[in-house]
Amino acid sequence: MTTPSSHFPDSTRRCRIGITCYPSVGGSGILATTLGEELAARGHEVHFISYERPFRLKLPAPRVFFHPVEINDYGLFKYPDYTLPLSVKMAEVVARHDLDILHVHYAVPHATAAILARAMLPESRRPKVVTTLHGTDTTLLGKDPGYAPALRHALASSDAVTAVSDFLAHETRRLLDVGRTIEVIPNFILPRTPTRTREQTRADLGVAPDQLLLVHSSNLRPGKRIDLLLESVARVLPRESFKLLILAGESFEPYRPLARTLGIEQSLIIRERVVEIEEFMQAADLSLITSESESFCLSILEAMWFACPSISTCVGGIPEVIKDGETGVLVPFGDPDAFARAIEDLKNNPPRRATLGQAARASAHTQFSAARIVPRYEALYHRMCDERATQASVETKK
Ligand code: GMT
Predict the structure, then answer these.
(1) Within 10 A of 236 (CB to CB), how many other CB atoms are there?
(2) Do 269 and 392 belong to one domain?
(3) What is the pLDDT of residues 5-34, one digit of tens each?
C-alpha cells in the first residue's frame, strides 16, 4: 500500500504545514496528497485545506488533518465564491494550529487565497506562502487577461515559488514576465504495491495473454486530445492484437461517438474514476499520451514505475520525463500516422519494449522517487522557517 516512509530521524526539524490543492482527480492534487502523506510520515504535521477531502487522501493517519472549506451559495451571488471562504479557513487553521507554512498547489485561486490569509493575520502569526505551479495555472490562465494580473501579483507576493518542470518555470517567466526565482522541483510518485498479479488483472480485464495491453490514464480534458488517441489506435492493425484500457478521471461518454465511427469500440476497455491505478499500470505493456500540452504528465511516471514504457507526444515538459529512445518514445504532436507506427514498432518488438521498460523503471525509481524529491521540499520549508524565525526575532527587538 502507499508506503510513506514511517521512519523519521530525530534530527528532522518538524514543520507545521498547510496544504491546499484541488481534491478532484488530477495530477496536482495527487502530487499534493502524496507529498502531505510523506511529510507526515517524516514527522511533520500536515493540514489539508480544501472544499473536499483529496480523493487519494487516506484518513485517519498520524499527523494528517483535513479542514473542509464551506461554500455559501448566497442568493445575491450568480456564481459561488470560493477564494474568500478558502482564505478565511486558511487564516483560521494557521492561527489555531500555529502553522509555519501554507503550501498551495495550483496557483489559481489558491495562491491569492493564501496571500489574503497571510494578510489577515497579525505579523507574528504570519505563515510563509509557498506556491507550486503545476501547468495550466500559468500556461493557460497566464494567457487570460482576466487572470494574468492576479496571477502575477500572487507569484510576486509568495515567499517561494516552485514549478514541476524546467519547461513550466520557463513558460511562466515568459508569459507573465515574472522576474523572481522559480525553483524547479520535479514531480514524484509513491505508488501502492498492487494487490493482484499482472496475470489476474489482465484476466479480469478480458485481455488474452498474446494481446498487447495499451493504457491511457488521464482526466480526459480537451488538452489530452483523446480524439488523436483514438485516431492513432484505430490505425493499428490487426485489431485483435491489442486492447486499449482507458483509465478515465471523467466520463468517457463524450468520446463514444468517435470510437464508434472509427470502429474501435470493441478494442476499448473503459474504467472511470479508478483510484487503485497501480493494479492496471503493472498489467499494461505500453502507455499512450497524445496531449497537446503537459508540464510534466504524472501518468507517464506512474507507468514508468511499473516498467511500462510510454509513447507520447513531444510537448512541454514531457522530454524532461522521457528520454526519447531510452526510457520511452516521443512522437511529434498531431500526427496519428506517426503515433500508430510507433505503437506498431513496439508491438512487434517485445525485447525492445522490455529494454525501454527496464530503463523507464530505473529512471522513475532513481530520479522521481519520494526519497529523492521530498527532501527538496523539506529543505525549502526549513529555509522558510529560518526566515520566519529571523523575522520574528527582528519584530521582537523593535
Ligand atoms: O493543468 C492541468 O490541466 C491540470 C493539472 C492538474 O491539476 O493535474 O495538471 C498539471 O499538473 C500535473 C501535476 O504536476 C502535471 O503532471 C500535468 O502535466 C499538468 N497538466 C498540464 O500541464 C496540462
Answers:
(1) 21
(2) no
(3) 544 554 568 999 999 999 987 899 999 999
Domain that holds residue 309: 198-367
What is the mean predicted confidence (pLDDT) over 339-353? Answer: 98
Instruction: Determine the residue type at 32.
Output: A
Q: How far is the CA of 27 from the centre of ligand 1 (A)?
A: 5
CATH code, 129: 3.40.50.2000
What is the Cα Rg of the chain in Å? 22
C-alpha cell at 199: 496475470
- Closest ligand 1 atom to 316 CA: 22
d(CA 44, CA 26): 24
State pLDDT tens for residues 32-51.
999 999 999 999 999 999 99
Residue pair 301/364 in contact (Cβ under 8 Å)? The answer is yes
User: What would the pLDDT profile of 276-317 be if each residue is shown by its tens digit?
Assistant: 899 999 999 999 999 999 999 999 999 999 999 999 999 999
User: Is 8 part of a structural domain of the chain?
Assistant: no
Using CB distances shorter than 6 Å, the residues near ligand 1 are 22, 26-28, 31, 106, 134-136, 139, 164, 187, 221, 223, 293-298
Strands across the sheet containing 183-184: 64-68, 45-50, 16-20, 101-105, 128-133, 160-163, 183-184
Q: Report how far ligand 1's centroid is from the alpha carbon of 55 (Å).
A: 16
From 34, 103, 134, the mutation candidate for ligand 1 (largest count of ligand atoms within 8 A of CB) is 134
Same-domain check for residues 361 and 380: no
Distances 356 to 242, 265, 360 between C-alpha atoms, Å: 19, 29, 6
pLDDT at 1: 35
